[in-house]
Amino acid sequence: MDIDAWVWWLIGAVGLGIPLVMTAMPEFGMFAVGAVAAAVVAALGGGIVAQALVFVVVSVALIAVVRPIAARHRNDRPQLATGIDALKGRQAVVLERVDSSGGRIKLAGEIWSARTLDEGQSFDPGQQVDVVDIDGATAVVM
């Protein structure tokens, strides 16, 4: 049983695709594309040197071009603030007088206990305050 070289390259491409799926390392996918390109060269009658050269050139080119683009897109994604981090920096309305010992505010549609950041500060009902931090279940405002 004599198997053509292009079939071996396709088997190699599938073999490189398995760790891509198992480890989520995109480099394996780039090597698999290089193996497919080498299979095309083999199917067109290229020699083993041409096949290996195409495999190496395509794989290295993909790694050199695609990885930096993918890294840039991964790093440029906007960071989504969730939980208490999403509340920091928002404005709230004072419901009960807020001073350094406590009070109540309405923040994001919910009623929160609150205290001021500075001891000498106080806010009366109806005033707008900025949430600086969340300390446990208490919003620190200014």
Task: Walk me through this protein's architecture.
This protein has 142 residues and is α+β, with helices and mostly antiparallel strands. Helix content is 46%, strand content 24%. The protein has a 5-stranded mixed barrel. A hairpin with a 2-residue loop joins strand 2 and strand 3. Helix 1 packs antiparallel against helix 2. The longest helix has 29 residues. It is rod-shaped, with a radius of gyration of 30 Å. It starts with a helix and ends with a strand. The mean pLDDT is 91.
List keywords for this structure.
142 residues, alpha+beta, five-stranded mixed beta barrel, 5 strands
Can you describe this structure in just a few lines?
The chain is α+β, with helices and mostly antiparallel strands. It has helices at residues 5-23, 26-43, 48-76; strands at residues 91-99, 102-107, 110-116, 128-135, 138-141.
Write the layout of secondary structure elements.
Elements: H1 5-23, H2 26-43, H3 48-76, E1 91-99, E2 102-107, E3 110-116, E4 128-135, E5 138-141
Parallel strand pairs: 3-5
Antiparallel strand pairs: 1-2, 1-4, 2-3, 4-5
Helix pairs in contact: 1-2, 2-3
The tally of strands reads 5
- Counted by DSSP, the helix tally is 3
Query: Any idea what the shape is?
Result: rod-shaped
- Cα distance spanning the termini: 81 Å
- Quote the average pLDDT: 91
User: What is the H/E string?
Assistant: HHHEEEEE
Give the neighbour order of strands across the main sheet: 1-2-3-5-4
Structural class, by secondary structure, is alpha+beta
Range of strand content: 15-25%
Question: How helix-rich are the residues, as a percent range?
Answer: 40-55%
The stretches of 5 or more residues where confidence is low (pLDDT under 50) are none
User: Largest sheet at a glance?
Assistant: 5 strands, mixed, barrel
Radius of gyration: 30 Å
